[in-house]
Description:
By secondary structure, this protein is α/β, with parallel strands linked by helices. The protein has a single domain, classed as Rossmann fold (3-Layer(aba) Sandwich), CATH 3.40.50. It has six helices and eight strands. Strands 1-2-4-3-5-6-7-8 form an eight-stranded mixed β-sheet, sandwiched between helices. A hairpin with a 2-residue loop joins strand 1 (2-11) and strand 2 (14-23). The longest helix has 19 residues, at 218-236. The protein starts with a strand and ends with a helix. 42% of the residues are buried. The mean pLDDT is 96.
Amino acid sequence: MSKDRAIPHNFEGEELESVFVGRRDGAARPTVILIPTVMGVSDLEKGFGRQLVELGYNSLVADVFGKKFHGAPRDTMFGELNRLKSDRAALLRRMQHVLELARGQSEVQGDHVVVAGYCFGGMCALDLARSGADILAAVSFHGLFDPPGLPAQKIKAKVVAFHGWDDPMVPPEKVVALGQELTEGGSDWQIHAYGHVGHGFTNPHAASLQIEGVAYNELAAERSWTSFVNLLEELFG
């Protein structure tokens, strides 16, 4: 049975509050850092974390926007997304801070960490991999693929991107560009593209954003989760 624990932390003067989702025995286990969508820490990501606990892992749902934005309206959160995206070097520092936060928890096996993100969070996971971070894998669910414009590093992590082919935010040429980028970076990579699927396909409430091309797709959600679990089994046995 899982247990949630709020973790207050500070990044460059900003007060954040992430949520650790683990087993009640407190034992150190392989851990997945979950980076939320533009809407920040929500029940959706905590629910994914609890599913990971049932599979024998721990998870950390990372707050990258700030505690004061928990539950903030959509327009506010999109403004914060644009702020964070405008300085990818600072965003990378933020992600490195989250990684160290996770590794500082007694329940986390520090050399057994995977980073997975949704939408904007997928871009954050990819940026960590691009930086050469010592993580086992970076996973993007309907993430943004735009490169950060930072010096290229050798990519140590395995990279998997789950992508809706009809995603209006990531057209096919950006998918091809990501594959080329990951190949040049030396990564062991996969891109799973789902036909007739748009952006936000893992989120049952995606349509509430009222953005064209953003919708839940139950089959793509199930297929991507199954492939994700297969990756974790490959990594952790």
